[in-house]
Amino acid sequence: MMAAPRLRVASGFASDIGHRDENQDFAAACLEDLPRHHGLVAAVADGVGGAKGGRVAAELTVRSFIDDYLSQSDALPPRKTAARALESINHWLHVQGTKDAKLKGMSAVFTGVVVKGHRMHSFHVGDTRLYRLRDGQLSLLTKDHKPEGAEDSHYITRAIGMEESVRIDYRVHDVAIHDRILLSSDGVHGPLKMAYMTDVLNARAAPDETARKLVADALAAGGTDNATALVIDIVDLPPTTLEDLDAVFASLPIHDPPKVGEMVDDFKLESILSDSDYSRVFRARDTKEHRAVLLKFPRQDTIGSEATARAAFAREAWVATRVHHIFIGAVLTLPPKRQTRLYIAQPFYEGETLEKRLLRAPVPLAEGLEIALKLAKAIAALHRAGIIHRDIKPENIILTPDGGLKLIDLGVARLPHLDTAREMDHVPGTASYRAPEMFDGNSGDEQTDIFALGVTLYRMFSGGSYPYGEIEPFVRPRLGKAEPLTAKRQDVPAWLENLIRTAIAPDPDERFQDGFELAYQLENGALSTASVPARRETWARRNPEKLWQAISLLLFLALLVVGLGRL
């Protein structure tokens, strides 16, 4: 299994005193190492001109912002932890500025960011600035806090420490690989034109070299103030978080499913692959990237509430980012702003489903064993990542022309630690592959996946038959004894018969515990003609009549002893 990507950045900064007696700017950045997940935190501050202790205020604000944020739990939202840090330092600076004459009025303008997941949280007070360069275009992401009509002056209306309480501009911005972030003091963006700054950033020199050039050019353009620039390049991003996707999908409208021939976000819809009660799936052509893709759209008339649809699609997209495996289908991450409606994009895998394959012609034993082992490894990878598929069946398995396999459709997948509010209000999966305990309220676990895998393998080797017959939805089945696989074909070895019988045992305690155990038994069984040790049924389960006869005999003997004792 490939290692998941993580947040990687390249950063550099430069600062110059300019024509001042003291440099009251301060900037810093920190990317925390794993296993903690605070992400990147960076900030720039500028001591308010004319106030005493400006340099102290700037440095304390930046250091406190970074240190306080990193000292708190990474499970807390950045808005809460970072804002708490700024409110604390604001109070301290204000108190010191009112008590100590040497520090009277000490305050600083400030802009800070936290990059976590695929989002950048910005915190802004004053006239320092935050910019983002993407696809050659430079965007200003903050607004200067200056008096109305005096935007070109040096007067400010907000700063850290200026008043007893502080109003912080908080915004959330998406980030993408190759984004270039700039934090600057007014000594840089004041003298320089936006177009010129765009050209310098677009030159893509190293971040520290770019920062030095911006500072030097600002002073050369007539700047006299302290000048500071902090440049950050987004080199790589971690897998998308569920919070990221919830935020993205919450803003996407839900429309009626499109039709073949339509163009959606530069995807040409070529054909319908499936049209179920809940979604319509197309094969499409990505006219921008020149590739075949699969697009899945919700059906607005049957999906339920919009919130349910968004939650389901966000979960499917997120779960797919949690595991990277050669036998598991992926989800495509589209560039920001490209997607204009709710859908999921996936690579299109050439080939046929296992359902079509097993109905087309008998699957030879050797071919079937290869498919079974690859599928077991895919499920083991999901279980290792803490993911329960909950809809394993031949229709969700694609056999590729190169002999590979892709397990797809994570739309009803479950993470046991996920908030129970996200659990579906109906039993997921297809009835004939659903373990008995799921009809009694089990939400799905490793053993239910094993049961579905066992039914899938039984059907593959039997030519399409179900071990317990087809089961109607919403009917609690009473599973008897599965028909022996050897009754369907004679070349099935005993170890494989035992393995599948173990996987489809009605009692979950008699099944394999997870995908790892099944894959191990399958791999070792394929290398040997010896039987794979199956979970043996208890003597009581194999001989229920003899059990009751034995119990009756013991009860009779006990009563006889009691009766004789009274004589």
Automatic annotation (TrEMBL):
Organism: Asticcacaulis biprosthecium C19
GO molecular function: ATP binding; protein serine/threonine kinase activity
TM stretches of this protein: 547-565
Domain annotation Protein kinase: ranges: 267-527
SMART domains xref list: PP2C_SIG (SM00331), PP2Cc (SM00332), S_TKc (SM00220)
CDD domains per UniProt: PP2Cc, STKc_PknB_like
Protein's name according to its UniProt entry: Protein kinase domain protein
UniProtKB keywords: ATP-binding, Kinase, Membrane, Nucleotide-binding, Transferase, Transmembrane, Transmembrane helix
Domain PPM-type phosphatase: 10-234
